[in-house]
């Protein structure tokens, strides 16, 4: 399937959107902007709850978000359900997400690169005690993660799904394992997992 990668941390975690519905999302974002700009007034807020879905103003745009954490009375950590980004916003920027704006499935799908078993991202090293990855598991170097981001982030690619896991009723609650293919060149296709395997022939250890 054709996809657009909105966020790429490393081969073990990136976020993609189905290309087929990108125009629908663009229309939705415009409709939300018009609706909430007319309706919303500074100081007129809703009482948000962890885990619930709302519309939230981030910058000059309105996004469909899920509340992940409320560390204090003013700060709220949110997850953008269409773009896969986590941000901290003020508690005054929320409005109810009306049914009209819930019809389009949430577009952000979390994925990992298939064909890369045995690797973990460098940022995971602190999760293990002692600070070494499990036997047989190699971590991605910072340089490899940056190279991966350069090749996939904010780019249209083709995704071939290998597996689907952690399904909880909705696509945005699942995790895909996919092969990514760059088809932008006329003479050849670039399989991203092969590219990463080549540059990580001697990856760094934690």
Automatic annotation (TrEMBL):
Signal peptide: none annotated. InterPro entries: SNase_OB-fold_sf (IPR035437), Tudor (IPR002999), Tudor_domain_containing (IPR050621). Pfam families: TUDOR. GO terms for cellular component: P granule. Residues 1-115 form the Tudor domain. GO terms for biological process: lens fiber cell differentiation; lens morphogenesis in camera-type eye; P granule organization; piRNA processing; spermatogenesis. This is Tudor domain-containing protein. It comes from Takifugu bimaculatus.
């Amino acid at each position: 399937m054709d996809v657009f990668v909105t966020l790429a941390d490393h081969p073990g975690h990136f976020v993609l959107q189905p290309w087929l519905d990108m125009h629908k999302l663009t229309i939705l974002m415009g409709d939300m902007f018009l609706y909430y700009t007319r309706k919303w007034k500074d100081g007129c807020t809703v009482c948000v709850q962890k885990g619930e879905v709302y519309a939230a103003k981030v910058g000059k745009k309105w996004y469909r978000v899920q509340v992940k954490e409320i560390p204090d009375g003013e700060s709220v950590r949110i997850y953008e359900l269409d773009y896969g980004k986590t941000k901290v916003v003020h508690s005054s920027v929320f409005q109810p997400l009306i049914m009209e704006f819930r019809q389009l499935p949430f577009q952000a799908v979390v994925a990992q690169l298939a064909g890369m078993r045995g690797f973990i991202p460098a940022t995971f090293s602190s999760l293990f005690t002692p600070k070494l990855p499990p036997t047989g598991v190699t971590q991605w170097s910072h340089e490899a993660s940056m190279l991966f981001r350069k090749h996939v982030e904010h780019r249209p690619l083709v995704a071939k799904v290998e597996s689907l896991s952690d399904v909880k009723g909705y696509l945005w609650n699942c995790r895909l394992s996919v092969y990514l293919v760059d088809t932008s060149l006329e003479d050849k296709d670039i399989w991203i997992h092969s590219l990463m395997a080549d540059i990580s022939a001697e990856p760094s250890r934690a």
